[in-house]
Amino acid sequence: MSKILIVEDEINISKLIQDTLSLANYEYDCSFDGEEAMKKIGENSYDMILLDIMLPKLDGYEIVKNIEDSNVPVIFLSAKNDVSSIVKGLKLGAQDYMTKPFEPLELLARIELRIKKKEKTEYQIGDIRVEIDTRTVYKGKEIVYLAPKEYELFLLLVKNKNKVLTRDVILNEVWEINAEIETRTVDYHIQQLRRKLELKDKIVTVNKIGYRLKGE
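Given the sequence above, the corresponding structure tokens read:
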């Protein structure tokens, strides 16, 4: 499920966007000023950012310039409808620009278009390559055969490289079960990935919390 960050300081507009995303079953987080937005961007992985320009503490232009992951698509949602503002936003790296007021259905259409363009079909970690379409994992030129849950767990780690994933999150995302279930199954699958992919030093145990895949 795609997750979107809404950065909008006007409560009513933020609520409208939230309701719109809920209709399409998108997950979302909300920020109401620029500094809070940068903190969330640094701590979480998002598939898209919906970004106002005129924000407290740090404006939308500055946020776009400071986003480290250039693969995250940004759509500006702003009351600034002059050509120079639109051109500036697009030149700074935003993929789209909508002026307020906007039609919720049009917003959903643009989100879907941008997220589809962003979807990756392949991931590379060192000498390991993951092909999404065929669910195949290569180490160098050799195929490494992973059980279905091993593959899903490894893909989750890859998509969130350098981020700590708690056992609760892993259980929910891979096994779709809650934290009340025994978590040793996670530890077992981690051991299998370390062995099969020779990642003993790359899949790091975060004591009493979970795991992190170290990436370049």
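The mean pLDDT is 89. Try to locate this feature in the token string yourself.
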